[in-house]
Design a protein that fits this description.
Elements lengths: L4 H17 L5 H30 L22
Helix pairs in contact: 1-2
C-alpha cells in the first residue's frame, strides 16, 4: 500500500477520534482501536479500488457508459 495524500486526512481524523476515546478508556485500548480502524479502512479502500480497476478495464464509453473492449464500444460501434 502506498502512502497517499488522503492518508494524512485519515490519520488526523483517527487521531481526533482517539482523543475523543481517551476519557472513556485506557490509552492503549484507544490506540489499538485506532490502528485497527486505520488498517481496516486501508484494506477496504484497496480492495474497492482494485475491483473498480477490474470493472473498468480499458475505459468506459462516454456516450453509453459500457466497458470498452479492444478500443471499441460494443454498443456504440456496432
Amino acid at each position: 500500500m502506498n502512502f497517499e495524500r488522503r492518508d494524512i486526512i485519515l490519520i488526523v481524523g483517527l487521531m481526533l477520534f482517539m482523543i475523543g476515546l481517551l476519557p472513556f478508556m485506557a490509552p492503549i485500548y484507544a490506540t489499538l482501536i485506532v490502528f485497527t480502524m486505520y488498517f481496516g479502512i486501508n484494506i477496504y479502500v484497496g480492495k474497492k479500488k482494485k475491483s473498480i480497476e477490474l470493472d473498468v478495464g480499458e475505459g468506459i464509453c462516454v456516450d453509453c457508459g459500457s466497458q470498452i473492449i479492444d478500443k471499441k464500444c460494443p454498443n456504440c460501434d456496432s
